[in-house]
Amino acid sequence: MELPEGFKKKCSEAKSVVFFTGAGISAESGIPTFRGEDGLWRKFRAEEIASLDALYNNTKEFFEFYRERFLSLRDKLPNPGHYAISEMESVFPDVSVITQNIDGLHRKAGSKQVFEIHGSIFYEYCQTCRYRQRVPDERDEEVPRCPECGGLLRPDVVLFGEAMHEPDWSKAYTAASSADIFFSVGTSALVYPAASLPFVALERGAYIVEVNLTDTPLSRYANLVLHGKSGEILPELVRAAKEIMGRL
Ligand code: OAD
């Protein structure tokens, strides 16, 4: 892969590298994106199902939707894009992954510092008393109730209108602020506040690399735009980065 000199120079000096990922990185693991042709939000209206309003007023459908999401994501496996990111830990001293995905695939691929700013489908917590637990594989009740107080046991994912997942969001913001290289991978860069992170990095002087099938609103601000599948481009970037760092 032919890379610009500016990128090579940044790589050779970089200490802190951030990967900011969206649904596109998991597309090659067989998980549909949100806004693509088969996108989840083309089938469901996000604000009607993934919202607090739905939790309270359309409770059965809300839990049916999230039970299906849990079952469909539970057994998915990382793809070469996720593995390439975790391999970057052997190249750069400090690698953080900020993900908008709730599928847990970065951790499954071995990444150690992962900030899940939209939460995780593998956990649930009580809307009333905040009791938290792993989502059980087997479940009989349609509307799960908290074993402590009987409140609604809702998925630990960020619903529309809710604040970002903490402490992950604060840590993500700090990581973006101190990034030397900031990779934005497989995200439409449309959903705020998550989409503000590349701009935080940019303002602090990070070199911005975008990996996506198409252009996004971020593309014109990026120092380097690589079009293609993340499962193909990221392994090439690992090889290139290792070569630049003299580790091949
Ligand atoms: P989107 O569905 O909005 O965007 C997916 C992006 O990935 C698009 O820009 C695609 O071009 C790109 N893409 C698809 N396949 C790819 C591949 N193999 N390699 C590289 N790029 C690929 O998903 P997100 O940006 O993640 O939030 O959406 C952000 C948030 O919107 C989600 O976290 C979710 C949703 O509403 C919540 O649910 C809170």
Walk me through the structure:
The protein is an alpha/beta fold and 248 residues long. It has 2 domains: 1-31 and 79-118 and 167-248, Rossmann fold (3-Layer(aba) Sandwich); 34-75 and 124-157, SIR2/SIRT2 'Small Domain' (2-Layer Sandwich). It is 35% helix and 19% strand. The chain has 11 helices and 9 strands. It has helices at residues 5-13, 23-27, 40-43, 46-49, 52-57, 59-74, 80-87, 105-108, 168-177, 197-203, 230-244; strands at residues 16-21, 94-99, 114-116, 119-126, 132-134, 153-157, 181-185, 207-212, 224-227. The chain has a 6-stranded parallel beta sheet with strand order 3-2-1-7-8-9, sandwiched between helices. It has a 3-stranded antiparallel beta sheet with strand order 5-4-6, with helices on one face. β7, α10 (197-203) and β8 (207-212) form a beta-alpha-beta unit. α7 (80-87) packs parallel to α11 (230-244). The longest helix is centred in the first third of the chain and has 16 residues, at 59-74. It is elongated and about 60 Å long. The two termini are 15 Å apart. Residues 22-24, 27-28, 33-36, 39, 46, 50, 100, 118, 158, 186-188, 190-191, 211-214, 216, 229-230 line the site of 2'-O-acetyl adenosine-5-diphosphoribose. 2'-O-acetyl adenosine-5-diphosphoribose binds at residues 22-24, 27-28, 33-36, 39, 46, 50, 100, 118, 158, 186-188, 190-191, 211-214, 216, 229-230.
